[in-house]
Design brief:
It is found in: Cytoplasm, Cytosol; Endoplasmic reticulum; Mitochondrion. The chain has 307 residues and is an alpha+beta fold. The chain has a domain of 132 residues. Strands 1, 2, 3, 4, 5, 6 and 9 form a seven-stranded mixed beta sheet that branches. Strands 7-8 form a two-stranded antiparallel sheet. A hairpin with a 2-residue loop joins strand 3 and strand 4. The protein is elongated and about 55 Å long. The chain starts with 9 loop residues before the first helix and ends with a strand.
Length: 307
């Protein structure tokens, strides 16, 4: 080892430089800890043994939350998504942890694209019939994130009967604020409104004007301070076991801002479908648009439900 004050020879300096360049150009190395966890889940998953799988699921969940580069791709390549679907359908001790993991994975577009083929869509929807509030919350969050910015995922979830199950939760478990909020957000995203979680929308129950009707108001303040986005979700009973769901979105502005920019309002309805046979009865009425008046636009989508 040379003395620190002795200058490097040309050969030594070049070798040092080449090593530095090689390190900089070295491709991304997969997280071995994550790889080991994914491999263990793939091998042990069919058995769904809680003691053996739980630490590996926690490892994957921790890595996904850190949003490290390449993590999503590792999950996709690993092939564990069908195992997660099996865990959700099994309703065993691992279901809650699995739902948390799936909700985090739903943030990643590269992962959620494979949810349908892996059986996770139907698995998540099957969870919506359970009574465990925490499990319901994470399953609904996953559905909301899946449908936030993907028309393809929205249509898939609508065809599989997501709306009647979400409405059934609102009617079956009233006044569960945390659960109501995620269900309402999911309904908004399924209608194509694209309400981001980061918007900080605050929901509250409104006054019902007719029997058999539930009204919810959601307010998302704008950072500029001049306006706020207001969403109205109304679940109205049309007949025995028959409901209509309408979603309206409009801007609420200060008087000066209102006079300058007018008020934009959009209305979405959900068409008739049945909780028992929604795949056969669901009919999606495409958006129709008309001016009301020059500064306003109205978009209508109609869904009704038999529960």
């Amino acid at each position: 080892m040379g003395h620190p004050n002795v200058p490097l020879s040309y050969k030594q300096a070049r070798a040092h430089r080449d090593k530095h360049i090689t390190n900089r150009l070295q491709p991304y190395t997969p997280n071995e800890n994550l790889n080991n966890a994914l491999g263990a889940i793939r091998v042990l998953g069919v058995e769904l043994i809680e003691d053996e799988l739980k630490p590996h699921l926690n490892t994957v969940l921790a890595n996904i939350k850190e949003r490290k580069k390449g993590t999503s791709e590792q999950v996709v390549i690993s092939g564990i998504l069908p195992i997660l679907a099996l865990s959700l359908r099994n309703r065993g001790p691992l279901s809650l942890l699995t739902a948390k993991l799936v909700a985090e994975l739903a943030k990643e577009s590269v992962v959620r694209k494979g949810f349908g083929d892996a059986g996770l869509v139907t698995a998540l929807l099957s969870v919506l019939t359970c009574t465990n509030e925490e499990l319901l919350i994470y399953a609904v969050i996953a559905i909301s994130r899946m449908s936030y910015d993907s028309s393809k995922q929205q249509e898939l979830l609508l065809q599989r009967g997501a709306v009647p199950r979400l409405v059934a939760i609102l009617l079956r478990l009233p006044h569960k604020e945390a659960l109501e909020e995620v269900c309402l957000l999911a309904l908004c995203n399924l209608s194509g409104m694209g309400v981001a979680e980061e918007a900080g929308m605050i929901w509250e129950r409104g006054v019902s004007l007719r029997p058999g009707e539930c009204v919810f108001h959601g307010v998302s303040p704008h950072t500029c301070g001049f306006a706020s986005s207001v969403t109205l979700v109304r679940v109205s009973q049309w007949g025995p076991g028959q409901y209509a769901v309408s979603i309206e979105d409009f801007q609420r502005c200060s008087s000066s801002f209102w006079n300058s920019h007018g008020n934009k309002r959009a209305q979405h309805w959900f068409p008739f479908f049945s909780l028992g046979s929604c795949s056969n009865m669901l009919k999606v009425i495409k958006f129709s648009t008309r001016n009301v008046p020059r500064t306003k636009s109205l978009k209508t989508r109609v869904f009704h439900t038999f529960l």
